[in-house]
Amino acid sequence: MDLTDRDIKKREELNDVHDQKSYRNPESPYLVGIINDVHQYHRFFVKAALEMKISFDVIDIHRNDWWDKLRAEDYDGFLIWPNGMRESLKSAYDSRVKMIVDYLKKPVYPDYLSIWLYENKIRGLDWLRVNEFPTIPTSVYYSKEEAMQHLKTNQLPVVFKTNLGASGKGVYIVKTESEFRKRVQQCFSVGLKSYGVSPYSESRGYAYIQKFIPGMEEWRMVRIGDAFFGHRKMADENSGKHSGTLLKGWEKPSEELLDLLYEVTERGGFRSMNVDMFRDHEGNIYINELHAVWGQSTEHLMIIDNIPGRYIRENGRWKFEEGSFVKGHSGIARIEYFLKQIGKSEKQLS
Q1: Domains of the chain and any CATH numbers
Q2: Which DSSP string do the residues of 292-343 spell out, in sequence order?
Q3: Cis ω for the linkage preceding 157 (within 30 of 0)
Q4: CA distance to 2, 13, 14, 147, 310, per residue, from 9 (Å)
Q5: Cα-atom radius of gyration of the chain, to the nearest Å?
Q6: How big is the CA angle at 247 (ends 261 and 301), to the nearest 5 degrees?
Q7: Closest CA to 93 of 105, 108, 82
Q8: CA 208, 213, 219, 223 torsion: positive or negative?
Q9: Of 27, 133, 260, 345, most Cβ neighbours within 10 A?
Q10: For residue 205, how many other CB atoms are within 10 A of its CB?
Q11: What single DSSP character describes residue 101?
Q12: What is the pLDDT along the chain (350 residues), one digit of tens a residue?
């Protein structure tokens, strides 16, 4: 059993709804499929569905009989917490969720494009560039020889990143030319490790190299359905990293940040999306990464002047609404929005 398998086993033991594979409420107007996540994040959907008294089955699409399970009932749609911890798991989600959308003709949440982009930095970068959104200067090389020439037109330090890897994992800040050459060599041989995942899940065959811009603010800007949230991600004093620190600055996000979040999510049709943004000393904003799902270590995603709430957009203007809108890791908010999109009335849901 490798370290990842041990981690999965531990997560299963800690999941207090692990054995809740099915639930039926005769009065529920919906029957949804909840796709099993080996790292147990699907539990947030399970808990929310139980609280909302929505009928569901948990379905494991990594099993050999996955297609039969998906067709066993006439599901109204499928709730998915995509996995990005292993290349093999990511591949299964990308291909099999595509079958749900194209051949079962069933809606999924988050939408397929969001899932396809999730935990794939190269895809996310390409999508942002094609749609002409501002990104940090980044180069992706599939040739070692080409990657070795990077410093001829770029300066140190630089940041190497693995394609998969969240919470600051798989990030290498490189400050010397010798270390740069070492990292490039690794990229095209044994691969770079994304800390905390299986030693067999190497990122190799490419080099993802990003410009290092010191002292930037990082903002977590979130859209769930038609609600918008934002807060600062504070850097760790020792590592200098923002991701994975769980440190938050409860400040009011600027309209510029909110507008960019709106533009990205409208362009992609995203209704469950975290757009991580950087702002430099000159006020320039860059989009760092896109995440269809994300960790939530606090009860709220936005607090302004000690008041939790959300923003909604009315007639092109931002309106703040006070309240608690993302309890249970935002599980209820996601399901409420998804079920409204299925087409059955809100009156039936209540």
Answers
A1: 3-109 (3.40.50), 137-211 (3.30.1490.20), 217-342 (3.30.470.20)
A2: SS----SS-S-EETTEEEEEEEETTEEEEEES---TTTTHHHHHHHHHHHHT
A3: yes
A4: 11, 6, 9, 39, 36
A5: 21
A6: 40
A7: 82
A8: negative
A9: 260
A10: 12
A11: I
A12: 455 677 788 888 899 999 999 999 999 999 999 999 988 999 999 999 999 999 999 999 999 999 999 999 999 999 999 987 777 788 888 999 999 999 999 999 999 999 999 999 999 999 999 999 999 999 999 999 999 999 999 999 999 999 987 666 789 999 999 999 999 999 999 888 875 555 555 678 999 999 999 889 999 999 999 999 999 998 765 555 545 555 789 999 999 999 999 999 999 999 999 999 999 999 999 999 999 999 899 999 999 999 999 999 999 999 999 999 999 999 999 999 999 998 754 444 44
Report whether 217 contacts 130 (CB < 8 A).
Answer: no
Nearest to 112 by CA among 222, 272, 296: 272
Q: What is the DSSP string of 251-305?
A: -PPPHHHHHHHHHHHHHHT-SEEEEEEEE-TT--EEEEEEESS----SS-S-EET
